[in-house]
Amino acid sequence: MPHSWKETLNRYRDIRLLWIFLMGCCSGFPFLLTGSILSGWLADAGIARAEIGLLGSVATVYAINFLWAPLIDRVRLPGLGRLGQRRSWILLTQLCMLIFILSLTTIDPSSQLLLAGALTLGVAASSATQDIAVDAFRIDQFAPHEKDSLPPAAAMAVTGWWTGYAWPGYLAFAQADQVGWNMVYLMMAGVLVLLMLFTLCVREPDTGRDQLQARAEQSYAEELPQRRWLNWLAVTLIEPFAEFFRKNGLKVALMLMLFIFLFKIGEAFLGRMSVVFYKEVGFSNEQIGEYTKLFGWFITVFFTLLGSAFNTRFGVVKGLLLGGSAMAASNLMFALLASVGPVEWLLLLTLIIDNFTTAFSTVAFVSFLTLLTGRAFSATQYALLASLGNLSRTTLAGFSGYTVDWLGSWERFFVVTALMVLPSLLMLWLVRHRIERIGQDNR
Fold this sequence. Notes:
By secondary structure, the protein is mainly α. Helices cover 80% and strands 0% of the residues. It contains 22 helices and no strands. α15 (265-281) packs across α19 (378-394). The longest helix has 30 residues, at 150-179. The protein starts with a helix and ends with a helix.
């Protein structure tokens, strides 16, 4: 039964949501460095859009971070262990990012494109590792019976993500023409230092993860006696994936994974080329910062909070259907903008629809992935599922620049990205009853 609006809103009084918001800021910020700032920097340096799209494929590491996610679940960092399993890994990855960002401030991409790509890959790899720990931090905050808190938690994570992405992004694009992109990256290093302070301020979640992992080790020890190191490897590298398939069954697990892969493929292609499109259609860096970052933040936060209340009250399936259907409409609005030109009011309308889409679909999507995640290996299992969603965004979308060139116009490109949404909606309709059943089983 749907909850009352009062019950729904009362869930936002939980202090744990503030911690999730702060860690969301940490998670969203690096996407700015490997996404729109990188695209703006390269476009102003005269790099071709096909190369810009291809260089953005450094974000492919987000699609394969599940490969080292077991280490985030199991390995304790010496010297940082007092921060806790999640925070210690978050702080380490932030230190690595800081080194790569400072290095980016010293190069010229027009003559050192390969080096710029290598350093950006370092930022992306550190960020992808941070995401594993941040997602696990969020999941570990709530016990399995607190299922109704998942949409508010997802909303705070998304709001934090957009805050970490949009506000520094507005600062970057507003100042880029005056101070240059190298100085912008130096300013971004200062933002990262602030985020590191956030990491030190939040509280590590208390879970029974150690006991659950010990129980899994015991079961493997019975099969592999006198092989303690082999037991550790089996629990670390095999059990997180085995548990997921064992819990859902092979057929259902594969169907869910296919839906996750398809859901945001159209949005991924659009997102990779958005800054290049804005610049080619005639918008300035300052306009891009003001409308897509500053204004985009306000409308995204509003729709994210509204979307979380909707998902809490009516369930994630309806949220996924509503958000997914709106994706096609928002992509068609970009096609209209491409044909009309740099009309500011049309850009505002397009962003409102696009951010509505992003907010509703992302809150539902994050809640859905969290429902599928077990308690003992939350970092690994969430990373596996999120990697599938990232695979289309980071790998296939790397060819978005070539796709624009092949289709011959921005209008055709955006129509094609709208059509890319349809297979995921069909898949969602096919698995809707299974998703609802998962939610009921976790009550």
